[in-house]
């Protein structure tokens, strides 16, 4: 009874907020009465038993004993006759009277009062409907298509039980509350039961005047894992023993349907749709979530990619998803695009984001199928001169506003790290350049410092002070060959020697002041 009262109050509260009244009085728009449906008659088990009015009967007494003739006295003063107490009406009859009696919409009774129903109930049929009463639910009328559907559900002995409120009509339909649910009627949707399993969710969504509108179908069960669903004008409600009842609508419902509804990997919804004033909505499911925005459309996110997205601040930090998860990549990997980048996942590397110039550089090298492989870290920024870096399976990419994005890998990367990464040698200004003598490679860094490597020689830094004199002898193709290592040593006379050892000799400076190195000298092996 509380439930149905709340349902009615929810409708009234909604209407009170409207600019103009939306509901008609209960008698203004009744549910249509089909002409072909016969009026319910009393069955042998509920024979109409006329309620007898209480009759006063005389109680016999003993023969009075004769008494002495009384002494004549003054004529007694006459007293007023007592007013008889009216017999109270039965609640069914009282309800009938409150509704206008024979002059009201119910018209003349077509039978006497019949009692002995479930829970001590009584009823009476009239030309325009019926009134049912129990001590627990009170007396309420029912009529038209709502009454007909209630009859098909088994009257008061069915799942719905007794009516708990009168029929309540609005501009576009009517409803009536029962112990086990509500019956709704609208010209557009027909007449349908909203049972207890989905009733609470439907009412919380505003009922017929809310998000979902009127029901357009009955509850359908037999779904996977014991689930049920019911359709409404603007969406559906899905229920399962594990998830309860949740409503779903619009583009999120369409996306869920394209993924197999409740039989797909997302399973049943575990929450209603949730939206923000700023734009965008999402809904939780057993196997993930679906997010929607006007600019990005509806896409699912799940698992490790979803977790990483959350660490990046969800849609406020990394933007809405702009694609679904795409799998089938190398080594069983997956990726998903978002408004501000992408997240890549593989069993070995986990989920890592890539974005901006670093993502562009990685893409130019073949994404995960290139020599760098998958990212093994997220982008890390706050480096010197506003730079950022990111690690991959087989190298790194570094970016700064002055140098752009370049990869470093292998022995050259390790040598760069020995010198303090970008702090000492600066950022790379080129990618690794290979195809040199004997299969060698080199890479240039800020300040024109270089690192050289070949299969026969270790990776060695060549400070910019040595590039010009080494070049005079033909670089790595000349007599000096590849560098082996730079060095600094103190001389016995107090001077400092700063040099680079090569395969074929040395180039060095000897000086007392680092700001005045003097001429470069060469010593051959």
3D architecture notes:
Among the domains are: 1-41 and 91-195, no CATH class; 217-301, no CATH class; 479-525, no CATH class. Helices cover 17% and strands 29% of the residues. A four-stranded antiparallel sheet has the order 4-5-6-7, sandwiched between helices. A four-stranded antiparallel sheet has the order 8-9-10-11. It has a four-stranded antiparallel sheet with strand order 12-13-14-15. The model is unreliable at 1-29 and 33-74 (pLDDT under 50). By secondary structure, the chain is of the alpha+beta class. The relative contact order is 0.05. The chain has helices spanning 2-16, 91-98, 144-152, 196-204, 250-258, 303-311, 314-318, 356-364, 410-418, 467-471; strands at 122-126, 129-134, 138-142, 168-170, 173-178, 181-186, 190-195, 220-221, 228-232, 235-240, 244-248, 274-275, 281-285, 288-293, 297-301, 326-327, 334-338, 341-346, 350-354, 380-381, 388-392, 395-400, 404-408, 441-444, 450-454, 457-462, 483-490, 496-502, 505-511, 521-524.
């Amino acid at each position: 009874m509380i439930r149905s009262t709340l349902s009615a109050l929810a409708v009234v509260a909604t209407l009170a907020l409207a600019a103009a009244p939306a509901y008609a009085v209960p008698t203004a728009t009744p549910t249509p009465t089909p002409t072909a449906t016969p009026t319910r008659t009393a069955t042998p088990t509920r024979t109409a038993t006329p309620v007898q009015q209480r009759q006063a009967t005389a109680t016999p007494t003993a023969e009075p004993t004769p008494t002495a003739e009384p002494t004549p006295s003054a004529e007694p003063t006459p007293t007023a006759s007592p007013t008889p107490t009216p017999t109270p009406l039965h609640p069914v009859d009282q309800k009938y009277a409150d509704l206008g009696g024979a002059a009201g919409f119910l018209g003349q009774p077509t039978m006497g009062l019949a009692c002995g129903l479930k829970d001590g109930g009584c009823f009476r049929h009239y030309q325009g409907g019926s009134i049912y009463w129990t001590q627990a639910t009170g007396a309420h009328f029912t009529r038209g298509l709502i009454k007909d559907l209630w009859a098909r559900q088994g009257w008061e002995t069915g799942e719905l039980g007794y009516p708990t409120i009168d029929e309540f009509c609005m501009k576009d339909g009517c409803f009536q509350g029962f112990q086990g649910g509500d019956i709704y009627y609208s010209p557009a949707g027909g007449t349908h039961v909203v049972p207890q399993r989905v009733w609470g969710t439907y009412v919380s969504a505003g009922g017929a005047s809310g998000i979902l509108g009127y029901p357009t179908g009955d509850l359908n069960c037999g779904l996977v894992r014991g689930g049920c669903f019911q359709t409404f004008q603007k969406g559906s409600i899905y229920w399962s023993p594990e998830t309860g009842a949740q409503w779903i609508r619009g583009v999120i419902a369409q996306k869920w349907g394209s993924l197999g509804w409740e039989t797909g990997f997302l399973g049943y919804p575990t929450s209603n749709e949730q939206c923000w004033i700023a734009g965008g909505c999402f809904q939780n499911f057993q196997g993930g979530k679906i997010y929607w925005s006007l600019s990005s459309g509806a896409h699912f996110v799940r698992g490790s990619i979803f977790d990483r997205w959350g660490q990046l601040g969800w849609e406020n930090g990394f933007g809405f998803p702009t694609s679904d998860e795409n799998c089938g990549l190398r080594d069983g990997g997956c990726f998903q695009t978002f408004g501000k980048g992408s997240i890549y996942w593989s069993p070995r590397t986990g989920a890592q984001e890539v974005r901006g110039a670093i993502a562009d550089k990685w893409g130019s090298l073949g994404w995960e199928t290139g020599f760098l492989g998958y990212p093994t870290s997220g982008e890390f920024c706050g480096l010197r001169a506003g730079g950022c870096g990111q690690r991959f399976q087989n190298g790194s990419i570094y970016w700064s506003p002055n140098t752009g994005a370049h990869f470093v890998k292998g022995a050259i990367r390790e040598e760069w790290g020995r010198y303090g990464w970008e702090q000492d040698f600066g950022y790379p200004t080129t990618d690794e350049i290979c195809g040199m003598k004997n299969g060698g490679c080199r890479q240039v860094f800020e300040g024109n410092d270089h690192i050289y490597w070949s299969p026969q020689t270790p990776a060695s830094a060549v400070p910019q002070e040595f590039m010009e004199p080494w070049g005079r002898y033909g670089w790595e193709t000349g007599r000096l060959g590849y560098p082996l290592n730079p060095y600094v040593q103190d001389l016995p006379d107090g001077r400092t020697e700063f040099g680079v050892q090569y395969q074929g000799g040395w180039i060095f400076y000897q000086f007392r002041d680092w700001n005045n190195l003097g001429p470069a000298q060469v010593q051959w092996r």
